[in-house]
Amino acid sequence: MMSRRVFLKSLTALLGGYSLPAIAYTKPDPAWKTLQISPVAGFQYYQGETLWPQLATGQFVTLVRETDNPYDDRAVRIDWQDHQLGYIPRMDNAAISQLLDRGEKMSALIVGLKKSNNPWDRIEVEIKWRA
Fold first, then answer.
1. What's the pLDDT tens digit per position in 63-100?
2. Which CATH number fits domain 31-130: 3.90.550.10, 3.30.70.2330, 3.30.70.2210, 3.40.50.2300?
3. How far apart are CA 48 and CA 100, in angstroms?
4. Which of 13, 32, 63, 79 is the most buried (most CB within 10 A)?
């Protein structure tokens, strides 16, 4: 019968010596807090229609701060796989832009997709912040 120590050494060697200790000592991440859920503004002006068949709820999107945007000094662009989908609406972007400017950890994902003639109803994203 193999001892526990021999088994763990064998397993560690098999996994390259790095995976087991990392798994054994990983601390849980702090909870992500939902900051807001927003529609995607400007969906009709960017690549959203072309990308529509590939989009799915649960997919992550990237929030990109545009400090030099000539129309909105708090602009936060929403990208999906390096393609622009639109923006966080101007009336909803104050907190997000400030948090991004401070270097806070942010995460965003698609939580709603709806076929609609109103572009403001097409995509909904949830923005999370690690407090």
1. 999 999 999 999 999 999 999 999 999 999 999 999 99
2. 3.30.70.2330
3. 23
4. 63
Reduced to 3 states (helix: H, G, I; strand: E, B; else coil), residue 29 is: coil
Sign of the CA dihedral with 45 first, then 104, 30, and 26 last: positive
CA distance 52 to 131: 32
Q: 45 with 129: CB under 8 angstroms?
A: no
DSSP per-residue codes, 101-129: HTT--EEEEEEEE---SSGGGTEEEEEEE
pLDDT at 128: 95
Domain with CATH 3.30.70.2330 in the chain: 31-130
Q: Give the global pTM.
A: 0.75
Q: Looking at residue 27, what is its pLDDT?
A: 56
